[in-house]
Each structure stands twice: as structure tokens, then as C-alpha cells.
Specification:
The chain is of the alpha/beta class. The chain is about 45% helix and about 10% strand. The protein contains 13 helices and 8 strands. It has an 8-stranded parallel barrel with strand order 1-2-3-4-5-6-7-8, surrounded by 6 helices. It catalyses: aceneuramate = aldehydo-N-acetyl-D-mannosamine + pyruvate.
């Protein structure tokens, strides 16, 4: 991979980890998965082993193998492959970071440790610094997801002076609904050229207005094309059209959230839309119910999302 590495931007799919019915990783479909993202969804960046990828439910050796498979199968097809290397153990996180560098990944991301938690900014930065130092040549991203980690340190506070401590710091994945915090991350770091990657898919348009430079999310696996239409409308300053696209995406997300929407359901939807078997999740998660999948399929059809690959902008009656 070329050096120096470029910053992550645009749409990034938070990848699912395909599994067999017995809960083993199904490495054999990752090549098809890469082709589907690129050819059918127009998405060329991936975020591997994160929340959607059940990264923290995998063993260290499994995480390494998944990362290797994405880098191998994505070569000359994907633009950026960022590996999430966060773990409760600093040593494991460093090992994963080093491995990501060795296999030629384009960047690494880390969440805050969430069992024995860092309770202030300095302690969290010390942890992140040690992980980043294990792969100093790779762009480093902080993965801010307080609802899952319970670590409530504001991202804006964390970013203040962070590059002095972590020279490879390039930006953050901001998976929270606090647009004040997100806006201040952007506002106070304008001269630093950080990547501001928003992680709440149903609110992406709001974040774009606030200065987001990209987005990482699970729905871009199967709604990538639709979301790209929103990004293109935003870029050409057609805000009315961008808003229609966002509302259309929201209608689907709002529907599935009411049914109970998480990693298990994302796997079921992706299997349905892509035809690639994603399998069940790993315990403690439970497989999505047949009823959920049937309801989600009906909603996707009513919004014309299931035939999105053949549709052009002017033919989205269901969502215009």
C-alpha cells in the first residue's frame, strides 16, 4: 500500500462477519462480499471487526484472520480497509494493531476500554497512545461510541491536543447522537484536516451540515447506493433532494428500530438483500426471527430498496 496513507473519507461500510450455522466464521464468502459492496452498492471503504462485525465477540486469532481476508480479497478493489483493534487488554490491542500494519491495512481504530474504564481524558489518551505506538505508520482513528462503552468523555475534549500525544491520529468515528459534541469537534479542529466520520446512519445529513467528512455505518452494506444519492445531492447543494433521501432511509430505519434492530437483524437484512449468507450472530446475540426478516423485506419492497440496483434517481416513486 502506498505511503503516506490517505485519510478515510466518504461512505464506509461497517462490515459484517459472516458465520456458519454453527457459529464459525465463513471466510469463503468474503470475496463475494467485497464484489457486492463495490459493484452493487458503490462502496469502496470498509471498517472491519467493529460493532457490526462482532469484533469483540471474536478471538484474537479470528480477528486477525478476518482482517487478513478483507485485505487480501479487497486488494485492487477497495480504496481503504480500516481495522478496528480495540480490546479490553492493552496487549491484545497492540498485537492487533501490529498485525494490521503487517498485513497492509490502511488504518486502525480503537474504542475506549469498557470494563475497567478510563475515567478522564488523560487516562484514555494514554491507553490510545500505547496502541497507536504499536503501528506508528498507520493512520489512527478513535472510535467514539459512549452508548456501548459507557465511557462518557466528550470527543471534543479528547481531540484537544491529541496529535501532540498521538502523532498518527487522523480523526474519529463518532457514533453518538450528540451533535453539539460532534459540531465542536469539527469547529475547533478546522485547521487540522482530521477525518470526521459520523456513525449514526439515520442522522447523517445533519452531520454533513455540521462538517462530517465521511460516514461509517452498517446500513451502507445494503443502502450504500441510496446513501450515495443523498451525498451527491448534498454536494451539489440540492438540499431538498438530500432531505428526501434521508427521510426515505429514516423510514426504513425507524420501522426496523421499532421491531428491534441490532447486529443480528443487520445480518438477516444483508443476507436478504445481497443473497450472500451472513449466518447467525455469535452468542450472546440471538438470530433474528423469521417474522423480523419478513417484515423488513416487505418494508424494503414498499420503499423500492430491494430493486435499488436497477433504479435511477427519477424512478424512486416510493420515496419521492
Amino acid at each position: 500500500m502506498a505511503s503516506p496513507k490517505k485519510k478515510l473519507q466518504g461512505l464506509v461500510a461497517a462490515t459484517i462477519t459472516p458465520m456458519t450455522e454453527h457459529g464459525e466464521i465463513n471466510f469463503s464468502v468474503i470475496g463475494r462480499y467485497v464484489d457486492y459492496l463495490v459493484e452493487e452498492q458503490g462502496v469502496k471503504n470498509v471498517f472491519v471487526n467493529g460493532t457490526t462485525g462482532e469484533g469483540l465477540s471474536l478471538s484474537i486469532s479470528e480477528r486477525c484472520r478476518v482482517a487478513e481476508e478483507w485485505v487480501t480479497k479487497g486488494r485492487n478493489k477497495l480504496d481503504q480497509i480500516v481495522i478496528h483493534v480495540g480490546a479490553l487488554s492493552l496487549k491484545e490491542s497492540q498485537e492487533l494493531a501490529q498485525h494490521a500494519a503487517e498485513i497492509g491495512a490502511d488504518g486502525i481504530a480503537v474504542i475506549a476500554p469498557f470494563f475497567l474504564k478510563p475515567w478522564n481524558k488523560d487516562v484514555l489518551i494514554n491507553f490510545l497512545k500505547e496502541v497507536a505506538a504499536a503501528a506508528p505508520a498507520l493512520p489512527f482513528y478513535y472510535y467514539h461510541i459512549p452508548a456501548l462503552t459507557g465511557v462518557k468523555i466528550r470527543a471534543e475534549e479528547l481531540l484537544d491536543g491529541i496529535q501532540d500525544k498521538i502523532p498518527s491520529f487522523q480523526g474519529l468515528k463518532f457514533s453518538d447522537t450528540d451533535l453539539l459534541d460532534f459540531g465542536q469537534c469539527v469547529d475547533q479542529n478546522r485547521q487540522r484536516q482530521f477525518a470526521f466520520l459520523f456513525g449514526v446512519d439515520e442522522q447523517l445529513l445533519s452531520a454533513l451540515v455540521m462538517g462530517a467528512t465521511g460516514a461509517v455505518g452498517s446500513t451502507y452494506n445494503y443502502l450504500g447506493k441510496k446513501t450515495k444519492q443523498m451525498l451527491e445531492a448534498f454536494e451539489r447543494k440540492d438540499f431538498s433532494s438530500a432531505l428526501n433521501h434521508q427521510f426515505c432511509i429514516q423510514r426504513f430505519i425507524n420501522f426496523v428500530v421499532k421491531l428491534g434492530f441490532g447486529v443480528s437483524q443487520t445480518k438477516a437484512i444483508m443476507t436478504l438483500v445481497s443473497g450472500i449468507p451472513m449466518g447467525p450472530p455469535r452468542l450472546p446475540l440471538q438470530k433474528a426471527s423469521r417474522e423480523f426478516t419478513d417484515n423488513a423485506e416487505a418494508k424494503l419492497k414498499s420503499l423500492d430498496f430491494l430493486s435499488c440496483t436497477d433504479l435511477k434517481d427519477g424512478n424512486m416513486e416510493a420515496c419521492s
